[in-house]
Design goal:
The protein contains 9 helices and 6 strands. It is an alpha/beta fold. α2 crosses α3 (51-61). The protein starts with 12 loop residues before the first helix and ends in a 44-residue tail after the last helix. The model has no long low-confidence stretch (mean pLDDT 88).
C-alpha cells in the first residue's frame, strides 16, 4: 500500500512504474484509487476521439469522480454532444473549466490562432487549467503512445513539475482501443467516422489520420498542456 501522506516530491516514479507495469489499464486505475486519497487525484478529458476508453474505465474504477473538461469555447458542436452522450451513458461528474472572459474575447476578436497559435492555446486552455492542478498529486490523462513522437516515449507515470502525470492507457494499441469500445458499448466520437483521427478546436483541426490534422502544416503537435 502506498503511503498516501507522502509528498509528491518524495514519490518514487521508477517504483510506481514498476508496480503498475504488469497491470492492465483498468487494474492500474483501480490500484491508483486504492493507493491514493481520491482528493489527490485529478482526471481530465478533452472528449476527443480517444476519450471513450478512459472515461469508461474511470467510471468503473471510481464512480462519480470529477472529470475536468477544459472548454475553450472553440470546441466542435459534435464534441460537446459526444461529451453529453458519454456523461449520460457512464454517469460522469463533469467539472467545466472556462478561460478568462477577456482573454477569450480577445482571442476571438483578433483570430489569435492565425497569428500566435501558442498564445491562443495558453490563454484558452493552459492558463485556466493551472489552478485546478494545485494541491493534487496525480493527474490522470488519456494519452496514447501511438499518437505522436513525444507520447511514444512516455511511461505510465511521469513527473511534471509539482504533479505526477498518469497515463493508464499509454500502451493501449489502436486495435485494443477499438475492441474495448465495442465490447463495452461505448460510442465512437462521430467525427472519427468522418475522417478526423483527432479533434481539438474548430480553427486548428482538419481531417487526417492520427493527429496529422491537428495544427496541420505547422511544427506544433501539442497544445502544451501535457508538456
Amino acid at each position: 500500500m502506498t503511503d498516501i501522506s507522502k509528498a509528491v516530491e518524495d514519490i518514487d516514479i521508477d517504483q510506481l512504474n514498476a508496480d503498475y507495469q504488469t497491470l492492465n489499464p483498468i487494474q492500474r486505475l483501480q490500484k491508483l484509487f486504492s493507493d491514493y486519497d481520491h482528493e489527490d487525484i485529478l482526471v481530465t478529458s478533452s472528449f476527443g476521439t480517444t476519450s471513450g476508453i478512459l472515461m469508461s474505465m474511470v467510471s468503473k474504477a471510481a464512480p462519480g469522480h470529477p472529470i475536468h473538461f477544459i472548454d475553450t469555447t472553440f470546441c466542435f458542436k459534435k464534441t460537446i454532444e459526444y461529451k453529453q452522450a458519454l456523461t449520460d451513458i457512464l454517469g460522469l461528474n463533469i467539472v467545466h473549466i472556462l478561460p478568462d472572459v477577456q482573454d477569450n474575447m480577445m482571442a476571438r476578436e483578433v483570430s489569435l490562432w492565425e497569428t500566435d497559435v501558442d498564445k491562443c492555446c495558453n490563454l484558452n486552455k493552459i492558463k485556466p487549467f493551472e489552478p485546478y492542478k494545485a494541491g493534487k498529486k496525480i493527474w490522470i490523462s488519456g494519452l496514447l503512445m501511438n499518437q505522436t513522437p513525444f507520447r511514444k516515449n512516455l511511461n505510465i507515470f511521469e513527473r511534471r513539475g509539482a504533479i505526477i502525470k498518469m497515463h493508464p492507457n499509454i500502451d493501449t494499441s489502436a486495435s485494443q482501443f477499438d475492441m474495448y469500445l465495442a465490447d463495452n458499448d461505448i460510442p465512437i466520437h462521430p467525427m472519427k467516422l468522418e475522417g478526423f483521427g483527432s479533434v481539438g478546436c474548430t480553427h486548428c483541426t482538419l481531417k487526417g489520420e492520427g493527429r496529422s490534422g491537428r495544427w496541420a502544416d505547422q511544427s506544433k503537435t501539442e497544445c502544451g498542456i501535457h508538456l
